[in-house]
Design a protein that fits this description.
Length: 191
């Protein structure tokens, strides 16, 4: 390297070290400026690791999160740029390891999107057993419990949809359904 480039890097490192010190002392503006200034540098380091463009951005975000978590550990007597480069390298390696782990266990299979191998299985639903016993057990429920069971279990509405229909909050609906199912089980066990 030439001395001009060395001076430029030393000057950049000094500026980033100063910003990091200010950040460690609680200066929010210095911290925001530091993150803005180091992002292109981190991005270039990640590209050198031969990551795809999407992976580069994942590494950058991971480095910024890591930097936020460990900024208190930075020692200002050491070069900031090297510290940042080490973090970037490790986060890039972590990403590659994660991809290898996932690639080892995940296999793309077009047929896996089928819910069931037998097409009838997705169309036919199993009944609720003895419908007369269920009807009798439903009589033991309060009107609100019957409505909640009807909406959530029989009509298979989501809690948000059932909440909109019944006018009850999602939390109240969850409690009502839970208690109603418990009471139905008790009633059906007695029979």
């Amino acid at each position: 390297m030439n001395s001009g480039q060395d001076q430029l890097e030393a000057s950049r490192d000094g500026a980033w070290t100063a910003l990091m010190l200010q950040s460690q002392n609680g200066d929010q503006r210095a911290y925001a400026r530091l993150l803005t200034e180091i992002s292109p540098f981190v991005r270039s380091l990640a590209r050198r690791q031969r990551h795809s463009p999407d992976q580069v951005e994942d590494v950058v975000q991971d480095v910024l999160v890591t930097l936020h978590r460990v900024r208190h550990t930075y020692d200002p007597s050491r070069p900031f740029t090297r510290w940042l480069a080490a973090i970037t390298q490790r986060r890039g390696i972590d990403l590659l390891r994660k991809q290898i782990r996932h690639g080892r266990y995940e296999v793309f299979d077009e047929e896996s999107y089928e819910t069931f191998a037998d097409p009838r299985a997705t169309r036919e639903q199993e009944g609720y057993g003895d419908s007369a016993a269920l009807g009798t057990a439903m009589l033991a429920l309060s009107e609100g419990q019957r409505e909640a069971i009807e909406l959530v279990k029989f009509q298979e509405l989501s809690l948000a949809e059932a909440s909109a229909v019944s006018g009850k909050s999602i939390a109240a609906l969850k409690v009502t359904v839970h208690r109603a199912v418990k009471l139905l089980r008790e009633q059906l066990v007695k029979r």
